[in-house]
Amino acid sequence: MRIAILGIRGLPLEDLSFGGFEAFISGLAPRLAGAGHDVTVYCRRDLYRQRPKVHNGVRLRYIWSIEHKVIGTPLHMSLCSVDALFRGFDGIVVLNSGNGLQAVVLRVASRARVALNMDGVEWDRGKWGWLGREYFKFASRWGARFVHMPIVDSRAIGDVYTRLFGIRTTFIPYAVDLYDRPNADKILPLGLRSREYGLIVGRLIPENCVDVLMEGFQRVLPDKPLVVVGGANYESGFHRRLRALAGPNVRLLGHVHDQDLLWQLFAHSRIYLHGHSVGGTNPALLQALAAGCCIAANDVVFNREVMADAGSYFRPEAVSVAAAVAQLWDLASGEADALRARARGRVATGGYSWEQVVAAYEAALRWDDETPS
User: Fold this and answer.
1) What tens-digit pLDDT sequence spans the chain (373 residues)?
2) What is the per-residue DSSP string for 84-103?
3) CATH architecture of the domain formed by 2-175+353-365
4) Left if phi > 0, otherwise alpha if psi is -120 to 50, otherwise beta: which for 123?
5) Which end of the chain is more exposed for a tag (fewer CB within 10 A), N or C?
6) Residues 339/324, Cβ–Cβ less than 8 Å
7) CATH fold for the domain made of 188-349
8) Which DSSP helix (H) or strand (E) runs through 277?
9) Which are the contacts of 69, defined by CB distance < 8 A and separation ≥ 6?
10) What gap in Å lies between CA 266 and CA 24, rounded to an integer?
11) Any long-range contacts for 332-339 (C-beta under 8 Å, 24+ apart)?
12) What distance in Å separates the CA atoms of residue 275 and residue 298, rounded to the nearest whole number?
């Protein structure tokens, strides 16, 4: 099949600040290409200084964009959709339910089979005003209704679409490989020692509760390093609040381009705090499981679906975070090892293997297949 993937910032990840979709596609696209498909990923041209034509067997197509919080994504997605109409693709994967209206255009105007990955409940994100939230709800509803295959990465997200819109979706989760390399050579230059720091990974947006995590950690462990990995595409009062909250032992690393360093940060952390509240299956949480982290996560249905009993949970309040931090940090070594093993086991038994996910996307894009289970 000739497959196009639209709706992300692009590949390779090393050149830009990325989110969950980019992390997922960086794994999915090369594996689809390795399975014999001709795969094209659309990229936001102005984010890249270097513009290679191929990355890990995947064709890269750069389309003009404006990097703006409100109009950047819909404008770029619209231009990508117009371009894709004339490329003769057999299957098109659109990421983000906010791109639902463009997905409908592709469904109607092209001969391709169109799949729309819905992601989380975008209209609940605090960064959008009333008009933005209504737009996302409208685009999500109509996109899911009219594409060939609406996909959710979380069963809980599928329940939301059924309850609100009466739409049946197909569950295909994200995937991750277990991390088995014990090296610590890249964290040592940062002044970090294995099992002596806490870690937060995620975009610096209010829905990820980074401020609450920072406050809770520093309440009980002000003298211990807390590493915060993540960036954002725009400056806001929230980012200024984070900088103000950061005590002398908080390391705000921004976006980490080096994937080996990121994996080492996960694998050698003493505890990992996951504050995401409105997404589905989050790749950072999968990475934490795959690296065998001791995890405390925001107690929402999406995180419980992914982690189950492989970690502990907190309410999005500093006092609750502080209690979870204290409990995990003080685990005896045997208890911590058992929890880390349970985290890795969750990846192995929870359906998050790449083999299963690639096969499900192949089925979703084939005209002669029924909906994958």
Assistant:
1) 999 999 998 998 765 556 778 889 999 999 999 999 999 999 999 888 889 999 999 999 999 887 666 576 889 999 999 999 999 999 999 999 989 999 999 999 999 999 999 876 776 776 667 787 888 889 999 999 999 999 999 898 999 999 999 999 999 999 999 999 889 999 999 999 999 999 999 989 899 999 999 999 999 999 999 999 998 766 778 888 999 999 999 999 998 988 899 999 999 999 999 999 987 888 899 999 999 999 999 999 999 999 999 999 999 999 999 999 999 999 999 999 999 999 999 997 888 989 989 999 999 999 875 444 3
2) HHTTT-SEEEEE-GGGHHHH
3) 3-Layer(aba) Sandwich (3.40)
4) alpha
5) C
6) no
7) Rossmann fold (3.40.50)
8) none
9) 127, 233, 234
10) 17
11) 336/294, 339/294, 339/310, 339/311
12) 5
Contact 289, 343 (CB under 8 A): yes
Residue ranges of domains in the chain: 2-175+353-365, 188-349
What DSSP character marks residue 188? G
In one letter, which amino acid is 100? G
Cα–Cα distance for residue pair 324/302, rounded to 1 Å: 19
Contacts of 316 (CB under 8 A, 6+ apart): 209, 212, 275, 277, 298
> How far apart (Å, rounded) are the C-alpha atoms in residues 307 and 324?
16
Contact in structure between 122 and 96 (CB atoms under 8 Å):
yes
Tokens of 96: 């983000």
One-letter amino acid of 63: I
Kindly report the backbone phi and psi dihedral angles of residue 355, in degrees, each rounded to the nearest multiple of 5, phi listed first.
-60, -45
Same fold, 2-175+353-365 and 188-349: yes
Would you give the distance in Å from CA 165 to the centre of its chain?
Answer: 24
DSSP state of 12: -
Distances (CA, A) of 198 to 218, 225, 268: 10, 6, 9
Q: Are 39 and 29 in contact (CB under 8 A)?
A: yes
Whose structure tokens read 């502990």?
312
User: Which amino acid is residue 350, in one-letter code?
Assistant: G
Nearest CA to 367 out of 84, 157, 7, 110 is that of: 110
For CA atoms 23, 29, 31, 32, give the dihedral sign: positive
Residue 10: count of CB within 10 angstroms of its CB: 27
Name the one residue in this structure whose structure tokens are 């795959």: 290
* DSSP secondary structure string for all residues of 103-147: HHHHHHHSSSEEEEE--S-GGG-TTS-HHHHHHHHHHHHHHHHHS
